[in-house]
Hints:
The chain is of the alpha/beta class. The protein has 10 helices and 12 strands.
Amino acid sequence: MRLEEKIDVAMGRKKADLLFKNVKIVNVFSGEIVEGAIAVSEETIVALEAIPSKRVIDLQGRYVAPGFMDAHVHIESAMVSVQEYAKAVVPRGTTAVVIDPHEIANVLGTEGIQYMIDSAKELPLSVYVMLPSCVPASPFETSGAVLSAKDLLPFFNEASVLGLAEMMNFPGVLMNAPDVLEKIDMAKNRPIDGHAPGLSGYALSAYISAGIRSDHECTIAEEALEKVRKGMMVFIREGTAAKNLDALLPLVKPENATRFAFCTDDRHPLDLG
């Protein structure tokens, strides 16, 4: 949608594609519930007023809220395709996910990553990708591929690829392992997710200084608080096996809420609903 068109639609000079009227807007910017309308053109919200529109839907006072975003998830754990995953989570309010295709990459290598990227196109679910950083996770594994920074680099040309997924090899970071540092350097201008259960003190500081900015492995409040104090984003995980919401939620306050996000990490099919 061109800039001029967007302005013309918002000003009412051209019709919007769709108008939702008689809605209660859950406004997360102002912390209010406001009665009004929502005008949409080409998948963009252009106005919160009842402007001329090609199609009008009366929501009869229903609430409209922003969708949930899962900050870190391995769709493979659900044992369904990306398309079927979208069918399960979108009707329940999740409209965007950040995936780490670590499992399929361990089996199929770069072919598996490309499959996940391609499968996520043209869906009602926005799927963003973090490139798996540890394939295999351990040299003692039997894996279908070994991915280097050189193997991962071309994927940064994909619009859906954001950065480098959880750096599970935190000992490799702390010991300056060349292959680990090469991947971090490759993604230095992009987000790099962490995976550092129990890491604390100067070891945590060193891990963060490498450019790693988030962690979803906190299981106790003290661990999460140290990571937030040192500038990390903490993803509060509530998955099938790991459930950390009750332990970590008391830490979230208006003053630090922007340092927390929610993720599922791994969810089995019966837990998607």
